[in-house]
Amino acid sequence: MRSRRWQRHLSTSRWCRARAQSAGTSLFQPSLTDPGNVQRFKPIDQTAPASAKDILPASGAGETGFKTFGSIGLKKKVKKRAGEPHPLPPKPQPLPGAPQTAVAQTSAPQIKDRAAYADAYKPPDTPARRPAPPLQDPYEPLGLRVSTFVVKPAVEVSRGYDTNPSHIPGGKPSGYTVVEPTLKVLSNWSRHEYGIDLRGNYSRYDKDSSLSRPLLDVKSHSRIDVSRDTTINTESRLFVSTDYPGSPNLPVGFAKLPISTSYGSTVGVAQRFNRLKVSAKGTTDRTQYDATPLVDGSLSSNKDRDFNQYGWAARASYELLPGIKPFVELGGDVRKHDLQFDRDRLQRDSQALTPRVGSTFDIARRLTGEISVGYLTRKFEDPTLVDLKGVVADASLIWNATGLTTATLTATSRADETVLNGVSGVLRRDVGVQIDHSLRRYLIWTTRAGYGMDDYVSNPSGLQRHDTRVSLGTALTYKFTREVSLKGEYRYDQMWSDVPGVAYNANVFLIGLKLQR
User: Is the pTM of this model over 0.90?
Assistant: First the structure.
């Protein structure tokens, strides 16, 4: 009896109650069928169609990892066999219960070949990939930092041998020494720009001191950015040189080449209107000659060769393609001599007009520069001097063919003054091609070729002369470091003329050491 009461007591005790939970209702268990409890879960209807949220993964889900519905697992990747094309994305299927219009909007187009598929799914307005810029020269001098400027000084000393330095038939050979200092200064500003380019040269001949001559070419330029589309450009220049050996302007029996000095300045403004750019500039220059020393100790005056020149030019260019800007230009100048009449009693004051057409290039740093062609007409005050006119061309193009090869095209045309009786002037045209190829980064092979024509425009009673010049050369430069390089050069020059007794040829050999910073 006692054991039965004890068992009954344990079965009704609070701390030993351990009966299994039944499906019945409880105060702590919500029921889906008890109307007295609030239902917090919606019953699942097995017959209702599943919605898009129940079967599609969330936006941005990857192809591998845990699935967002169904059983948990990893998606098995299918490896592509060698030579097998990539599978096209599957055609999207319509959702259960979705209208047919929605299916038509989300379905992929029926494309049979892969090329058409790539064109159909090409992103709109995809910019073309620009070619990589040319490689920089690892031996290019870095220069010196002076305040906000970069200064690059250099000096080259060369020793040479010329078989005909006087440029006359049967000229005597001579050795000579050339000293050529250069200096480049460029600002490093966020706006505006200022720079100086200086190049000097002095050639001293061992056997004929009358051929020794200096050369100095100095240019300073500036750009003032008034606004994003408006700039003011200025330039100042100084050029010191001599008459070239064999020039018909030299008097007989000269003891030294006369020195000529030219200096001037340019002021211009440029305005950009979207792709259209309009610019105008004005120039003023002064040219004067020293007297020519003669072998007898006297001087031959050159006062009649001194003159002032005032010029202008207007240009309009349009960016037809990225980096290609065709332009039209109209320029003119007026020359006023210090003396009204020269040594032959001729009035050499003149006026010139030159229309041009051309284009500038800046194509992904591969092709840069400018090329133009025009027609020059110069009229003289003296009625006995015929007009000097003809086709003129100018070019300065640099083509970076590869990272190791660069080609340069230059062309110049100018109308030079002369003191020859009855000759209006000399129309000179020159064109040259230079190719630089890096056999190694430190070893540069250079080849040059030049062609020139000199037309002496005169009246029927004056000198009738036409000269043709050819120059061929090659050079090899070895760069030890950024600061030191060694250069060897050979050049062949020849000139033909329809005037007897002036044609010549010459061979020139040079070896030089260059120091730069």
Answer: no
